[in-house]
């Protein structure tokens, strides 16, 4: 069924659960983009230190401006895409092709990073000194590294658009299993 994320709880637990889960999903997806933009700014601060205050992860005025511009860009891109694809069916084919190309580039660059990291691999870096080898900052870094869970948010659209898939009994399990397996392999190799 279309909107499986909301409909399945309605079927199993009633309308109140469907409304609550819908509201929670709206909040989660609304905050997701801002979390990713903050993370992108923090990563970019390695190359552009002016984006982050020295000795902190807080943005500077330039960092706030960059985050705001990224948020506006993504909003415009998504808004324009939805309007365009809703009006012109032909654009869906273009989107699928461009999306496949972007996914290919994403995997290509991830594998390039993995190969580069393996080229500079040193086994002596794997030695740990106690429970927190870098003190509290090491613990904080480990907790923030848990952000890779965002990679698994790609599972939600698989269920949400299940009614629009050809042969869903075969395609959906393959998509779910492959996305989990590929994400796990890539992130294990990156670590």
Written overview of the protein:
The protein is 72% helix and 0% strand. It has 191 residues and is mostly helical. The two termini are 38 Å apart. It has helices spanning 4-13, 15-44, 61-87, 90-119, 135-145, 155-160, 168-190. The chain is globular. It is built from seven helices and no strands.
Short characterization:
Helices cover about 70% and strands about 0% of the residues. It is built from 7 helices and no strands. The protein has helices spanning about 5-15, 15-45, 60-85, 90-120, 135-145, 155-160, 170-190.
Question: How are the SSEs placed, and which strands pair?
Answer:
Blueprint: H1 4-13, H2 15-44, H3 61-87, H4 90-119, H5 135-145, H6 155-160, H7 168-190
Helix pairs in contact: 1-2, 2-3
Characterize the overall form.
Answer: globular
Mean pLDDT: 74
Strand content: under 5%
Q: Describe the biggest sheet?
A: none
* Low-confidence sequence ranges: none
Order of helices and strands: HHHHHHH
Radius of gyration from the alpha-carbon trace, in angstroms:
20 Å
Structural class from helices and strands?
Answer: mainly alpha
Number of helices: 7
Number of strands: 0
Distance between the termini: 38 Å
Report helical residue fraction.
over 70%
